[in-house]
Amino acid sequence: MTDVLFKPSAHPVVPWIHAHRWLLASLLLVLLFCQPAFAHGVEAGDKGYIQETSGIVFWPFVYLGAKHMVTGYDHLLFLFGVIFFLYRMKDIGIYVTLFAIGHSVTLLSGVLGNISVSSYLVDAIIGLSVVYKALDNMGAYQRWFGFQPNTRAATLVFGLFHGFGLATKLQDFEMSPDGLVVNLIAFNIGVELGQLLALGAILIAMGFWRRTPGFWKHAYLANTIVMTLGFVLTGYQLVGYFVA
Q: Is pLDDT at 233 greater than 70 in this prediction?
């Protein structure tokens, strides 16, 4: 399976962006006001529950993990980019599995090993993962450097960062060691279930979009928007890092 690459001359992006600049501005404003999603934020009520919980509470942590995934814009943007040109379920399964493996390894090892790194820096890298995938979909690396990076390896590596981003946030909650391993496993199961739910919704929407005449006309622009949002996520985290 190879990603579909664009020819710039066949996709007049600039006129479309100019005509729909209001749409781009709206998307950026939505991101700027959705602060909890930028740093793997957890709602105040969920945070309090995590901090006060002691012992094994399997299903509530499954729910919290699923909730985190389906409301995590950085995860969803990256998954959107990953499956943008994947049509066969076999290929989708391979890439999603690689992402899930990476996400699970660093989520569990980061918390259990008490590996602490600034969440701002980790989330800045996650924003760059969105940029990377959008540029990959646009065929930028072949045009700029004359080669195509290994997309499977990149998906696994960025999965590691996505999981580590959440691990750094969970460490701030000082979770009780009583039942910690089981609760973390439950949380991770919830994350993967949430990923499947979100992926299913994305695939359904993509399936309808791909059947329309406008898919190829607007596909390049869609990845340009994803790239822009990735840069916004990265910039937001870097500002937070230096200000904090």
A: yes
For residue 103 the two structure tokens come to 């996400």
- Both tokens of 198, joined, read 């979100």
pTM: 0.80
Q: State the DSSP string of 24-77.
A: HHHHHHHHHT-HHHHTT---HHHHHHHHH--S--HHHHHHHHHHHHHT-HHHHH
**Is residue 151 exposed (0-12), middle (13-18) or buried (19+ Cβ within 10 Å)?**
buried
Show me where the domains of the chain are located. 41-243
Work out the pLDDT band at 43, boundaries 50, 70, 90: low
Cα 214 to its chain centre, rounded Å, is 25
Using CA atoms, how far apart are residues 156 and 75, in angstroms rounded to an integer? 13
| 225, 24 contact by CB (below 8 A) | yes
What sign does the dihedral 7-217-1-69 (CA atoms) show? positive
Residues present in the chain in total: 244
> CA-CA distance, 170 to 206, in Å (whole number)?
33
Q: Could you give the CA distance from residue 4 to residue 88 in angstroms, rounded to a whole number?
A: 13
- Residue 55 corresponds to which amino acid? G
The DSSP symbol for 213 reads T
Q: How far apart are CA 219 and CA 16, in angstroms?
A: 12
CB atoms within 10 A of CB 50: 21
Cβ–Cβ under 8 Å, residues 109 and 158: no
Q: Taking residues 155-161, report their average pLDDT.
A: 93
Percent of the chain past pLDDT 70, that is, above it, reads 80
Please state which of the ranges 1-5, 151-155, 171-175 shows the lowest mean pLDDT.
Answer: 1-5
State how far the Cα of 132 lies from the Cα of 10, in Å rounded to an integer. Answer: 22
Query: Cα angle at 9 between 227 and 206, to 5 degrees?
Result: 45
